[in-house]
Structures are given as C-alpha cells and as structure tokens.
Amino acid sequence: MIVVGAGAVGVEFASIYNSFGTPVTILEALPRIVPVEDEEISVELTKAFQKKGIQIFTSCAVESVKKDAKGVSVAFKDKDGKAQTLQAEKLLLAVGRKAMTDGCGLEKSKAKVERGFVHVGDNMETAEKGLYASAISLRASRNWRTRR
Predict the structure, then answer these.
(1) Taking 60 as the threshold, does the pLDDT of residue 12 lie above it?
(2) 125: which strand partners?
(3) Quick count: other Cβ atoms within 10 Å of Cβ 76?
(4) Is the Cα torsion angle 62, 65, 69, 70 positive or negative in sign?
C-alpha cells in the first residue's frame, strides 16, 4: 500500500495496515512526517515506522498515479529530484481537508464564510443570531480556541 500524505490520518492508516501485515510506503511532500507536530515526535515516529518496515519518502512530489492490472503505479520525484516509481495493490490519499459548506444556504444568512469555513464567536454562534456552526466547519475566534 502507498499512503500519500503523512499527517495524522496518513500515519494512522499506515500503522494500522502495517500491523495487518501489509507492506506500506509513505510519500510526504513536506520535510518530515506529522509536520504539524513537534519535530521530536516526527523523529521518534519515523524511527518506529522504519523499525516496523514502513518505507518513508519525505520532501517528495507525486507526479502521477496510474491504475493498472496489478493495482496502482505512482510516479514521484524524491528529495533529490530523482524520478521514482512505486507499484502497489492499493493507494490511500490522505492529504488535505475541506469544510463542506457549499450549497447549504449560508449565503442567504449573515454568517461570514472564508474558504468554506464559518466564522463564529465565543459560543460558536455565527453573525446570524441563532445560527451556530459545528466544530468541523468553523473558523473560531481566538477566545473560543484558547478557552477550550
């Protein structure tokens, strides 16, 4: 299995599938896995994964993914810019997340939306009185984030 993306979701699934006996390779565009965590965590997790046989490529760029008779073929450039190709039965794409607020009627309210995320105040209420946002879709005020 090839996992593209080494954030929390990517490394969790890589670990799970590896524990089931699946050979796993992780491809990450940034210089280290779990890049939003402390660097020490990245270093230790990298060591643990390599000890378990999980192959890791960081600072790489996926060029293409092609489905074939054996599964998938992923072409990428490694950190040195060298073109490489990996073959696997399955590919897990674990990059990026997006709030799903398009077309849900927010444009008819006073709620402020920025790149799909809803702005809220201290009680998760939007600019539209009585309209609240769920945690997955919000861009909280500084006060709301620090109090929880």
Answers:
(1) yes
(2) 132
(3) 20
(4) positive
Angle of the 8-19 helix axis to the 39-51 helix axis, nearest 10? 20
Q: How far is residue 62 from each of residues 9, 16, 48, 58, 98, measured CA to CA in Å?
A: 18, 23, 24, 11, 20
Name the burial class of residue 75, with classes exposed (0-12), middle (13-18) and buried (19+) by CB atoms within 10 angstroms of its CB: middle
pLDDT of residue 19: 97
List Cβ neighbours of 119 (8 Å cut-off, separation of 6 or more). Answer: 111, 112, 113, 126, 127, 138, 139, 141
* pTM assigned to the model: 0.71
pLDDT tens by residue, 100-138: 677 778 888 898 888 777 888 878 888 888 888 766 555
CA distances from 15 to 8, 18, 90, 115, 147 (A): 11, 5, 15, 32, 33
**Tokens 């009585």 appear where?**
130
Question: Comparing 132 with 45, which gets the higher pLDDT?
Answer: 45
Alpha-carbon distance of 137 to 98, in angstroms, equals 9
